[in-house]
Protein backbone atom coordinates (compact mmCIF):
# COMPACT_ATOMS: atom_id res chain seq x y z
CA UNK A 1 0.00 0.00 0.00
CA UNK A 2 2.82 2.42 0.85
CA UNK A 3 4.49 1.80 -2.48
CA UNK A 4 1.29 2.66 -4.37
CA UNK A 5 0.94 5.86 -2.35
CA UNK A 6 4.58 6.77 -3.03
CA UNK A 7 4.17 6.15 -6.76
CA UNK A 8 1.01 8.24 -6.74
CA UNK A 9 2.88 11.06 -5.01
CA UNK A 10 5.66 10.88 -7.59
CA UNK A 11 3.16 10.92 -10.46
CA UNK A 12 1.43 13.95 -8.95
CA UNK A 13 4.69 15.81 -8.45
CA UNK A 14 5.85 14.95 -11.96
CA UNK A 15 2.63 16.25 -13.51
CA UNK A 16 3.06 19.59 -11.72
CA UNK A 17 6.17 20.24 -13.80
CA UNK A 18 4.21 20.32 -17.08
CA UNK A 19 4.21 24.14 -17.19
CA UNK A 20 7.60 24.82 -15.65
CA UNK A 21 10.94 23.06 -15.27
CA UNK A 22 10.50 19.30 -15.31
CA UNK A 23 10.62 17.38 -12.07
CA UNK A 24 13.10 14.51 -12.31
CA UNK A 25 12.09 11.24 -10.63
CA UNK A 26 14.72 9.44 -8.57
CA UNK A 27 14.95 5.85 -7.35
CA UNK A 28 17.44 3.82 -5.32
CA UNK A 29 17.49 0.16 -4.27
CA UNK A 30 19.98 -1.35 -1.84
CA UNK A 31 20.92 -4.75 -0.46
CA UNK A 32 23.12 -5.10 2.62
CA UNK A 33 24.72 -8.21 4.07
CA UNK A 34 25.78 -8.12 7.70
CA UNK A 35 25.88 -10.08 10.92
CA UNK A 36 22.08 -9.86 11.20
CA UNK A 37 21.57 -11.33 7.70
CA UNK A 38 20.45 -9.73 4.48
CA UNK A 39 18.44 -6.51 4.48
CA UNK A 40 16.95 -4.54 1.62
CA UNK A 41 15.98 -0.91 1.18
CA UNK A 42 14.27 1.19 -1.45
CA UNK A 43 13.83 4.91 -1.97
CA UNK A 44 11.74 6.83 -4.54
CA UNK A 45 11.43 10.55 -4.93
CA UNK A 46 11.48 13.60 -7.14
CA UNK A 47 13.86 16.52 -7.49
CA UNK A 48 13.49 19.98 -8.97
CA UNK A 49 16.59 22.15 -8.63
CA UNK A 50 17.57 22.37 -4.96
CA UNK A 51 14.31 20.79 -3.71
CA UNK A 52 14.12 17.01 -3.24
CA UNK A 53 11.21 14.97 -1.91
CA UNK A 54 11.73 11.26 -1.25
CA UNK A 55 10.10 8.32 0.49
CA UNK A 56 12.09 5.36 1.75
CA UNK A 57 10.77 1.93 2.58
How would you sum up this structure, described in words?
This protein is of the alpha+beta class and 57 residues long. The chain has one domain. Helix content is 26%, strand content 51%. The protein is built from one helix and three strands; from the N terminus they run H-E-E-E. The chain has one helix at residues 2-16, and strands at residues 24-34, 37-48, 51-56. It has a three-stranded antiparallel β-sheet with strand order 1-2-3, covered by helices on one side. A hairpin with a 2-residue loop joins strand 1 (24-34) and strand 2 (37-48). The longest helix has 15 residues, at 2-16. It is elongated. The protein starts with a helix and ends with a strand. The relative contact order is 0.25. The mean pLDDT is 82.
Helix content: 25-40%
Strand arrangement, largest sheet? 1-2-3
Share of β-strand residues: over 45%
Helix count, per DSSP? Answer: 1
Rg for CA atoms: 14 Å
- Average predicted confidence as pLDDT: 82
Uncertain spans: none
What oligomerization state is this entry in? Answer: single chain
What's the number of extended β-strand segments? 3
Domains, number: 1
